[in-house]
Amino acid sequence: MKSAGKIGFIGGGNMAEAFIKGLLKGGVPAEDMAVAEPGEGRRQFLAERYGVKVTVDNTEVVAGADTVVLAVKPQIVDSVLSGVAGAFNGEKLLVSILAGVATATMEGHFDGSPRVVRAMPNTPALVGAGAAGLCGGRFATADDLQVARRLFETFGIVRMVSEDQMDAVTGLSGSGPGYVFTVIEALADGGVQEGLPRDTALALAVQTVLGAALLVKESGEHPAVLRDKVCSPAGTTIAAVRVMEEKGLRSTLMEAVSCATKRSRELGGK
């Protein structure tokens, strides 16, 4: 299988850091990675913590890379890609993690047949538990998709999707950690309201969410089936489930996914 070769990151934020951590753990040497990052403090952190090369020059990173990971804000993608177009050629693979930005938009900044793969990972990648959707542009090859998939699998799971599904991936798993953090906070607040110390309530809430997610993953059973198993007749859980249904928790979360998906489309100008 084709190797990613030298890997360059345009942008040194959390997702670039997750990549670097995963790649180092997977045996990729630090000297095979370089990061272009405008923030001096962030550059210093990445260099000291992970031993990768850092610079402020995007073009320098692109010129020296076989695979370029684009990890900047969607709002500045046009200026960034226009600035590095002269250093990008058909031998390089561009992997984008920008919300809402279509592969065709990125391809339009380059001559020839630029190979572009679009992905949407999420921040749990920082602890090796990420989830990513992945699709290829017009000129991306099967090897390109496999190279990208292997990169993302260093810090989580990957699902191949069509490009018209990528905004939904963004709305579900890309933004999803924010929803779960809110649920954890609310559960802990409920415990405090009922008399638990704050640290105890938070620890119990975190472990409950973690354990429930692992149970769904490891058992292979539908969440509704597992929920039914803890809803004893006239018990505490079914009473709480009734309240959640009355207050619209399920529909609120569904609407949150739809709202984030819509915003992803807006960012891409669709």
Helix content: 40-55%
What do we call the CATH topology of the largest domain? Rossmann fold
Regions with little confidence, pLDDT below 50 for 5+ residues: none
Integer count of domains: 2
Number of helices: 12
Mean pLDDT: 93
Radius of gyration: 21 Å
Can you name the CATH architecture of the largest domain? 3-Layer(aba) Sandwich
Tell me what you see in this structure.
This protein is α/β, with parallel strands linked by helices. The chain has two domains: 7-164, Rossmann fold; 176-267, Orthogonal Bundle (ProC C-terminal domain-like fold). 52% of the residues lie in helices and 14% in strands. It contains twelve helices and eight strands. The protein has an eight-stranded mixed sheet. Helix 7 (166-174) packs across helix 12 (249-267) and helix 8 packs across helix 9 (198-219). The chain is elongated, with a radius of gyration of 21 Å. The two termini are 35 Å apart. The model has no long low-confidence stretch (mean pLDDT 93).
Which descriptors would you attach to this protein?
270 residues, alpha/beta, Rossmann fold, ProC C-terminal domain-like fold, 2 domains, elongated
